[in-house]
């Protein structure tokens, strides 16, 4: 069952994904989100890493369309998107895109993201700087100054699946 916490998180995430601000998520919005991830990492559009992120973005779009585009208009409204809270297949694909983003943002390939790498990504996708810093601090569970792949995976999972208002992953995409 959807909770108020999940609904608020997903409404915030909808705002980040709706790049053109028309009140709908379309394939072009998801593609732009994926491209911004790659730009934040400074990877070439033709690189293997970039292509993986774009592919995961396309998979997310198809999962959104298949599961949430109830009226078949090739776009997902805010109301339809909040239905994501009940769609395991869409959540699973969103998590896959998140992990592909981690891999491309982890510029030096050391299995962890620095605060600078994190805030650069967040700036490109529209997360306010203060929210980005707070999100990083919450996800850096061991407080070593880095978000590891495991910490990130846990945070992304919490963002999409947890209804616990105190879960660190709730701030993965800024305050909601």
TrEMBL record:
InterPro entries: EF-hand-dom_pair, EF_Hand_1_Ca_BS, EF_hand_dom. Residues 5-40, 93-128, 130-162 form the EF-hand domain. GO terms for molecular function: calcium ion binding. SUPFAM superfamilies: EF-hand. SMART domains: EFh. It holds the Pfam family EF-hand_7. This is Ca2+-binding EF-hand superfamily protein. It comes from Streptosporangium album.
């Amino acid at each position: 069952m959807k909770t108020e916490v999940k609904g608020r998180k997903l409404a915030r995430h909808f705002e980040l994904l709706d790049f053109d601000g028309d009140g709908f998520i379309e394939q072009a919005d998801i593609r732009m989100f994926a491209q911004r991830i790659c730009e934040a990492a400074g990877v070439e559009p033709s690189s293997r890493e970039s292509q993986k992120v774009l592919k995961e973005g396309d998979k997310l779009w198809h999962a959104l369309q298949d599961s949430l585009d109830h009226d078949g208009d090739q776009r997902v409204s805010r109301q339809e998107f909040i239905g994501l809270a009940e769609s395991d297949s869409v959540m699973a694909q969103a998590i896959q895109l998140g992990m592909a983003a981690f891999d491309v943002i982890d510029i030096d390939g050391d299995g962890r993201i620095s605060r600078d790498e994190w805030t650069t990504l967040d700036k490109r996708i529209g997360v306010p700087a203060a929210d980005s810093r707070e999100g990083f601090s919450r996800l850096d569970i061991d407080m070593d100054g880095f978000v590891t792949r495991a910490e990130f995976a846990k945070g992304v999972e919490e963002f999409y699946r947890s209804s616990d208002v105190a879960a660190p992953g709730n701030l993965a995409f800024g305050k909601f």
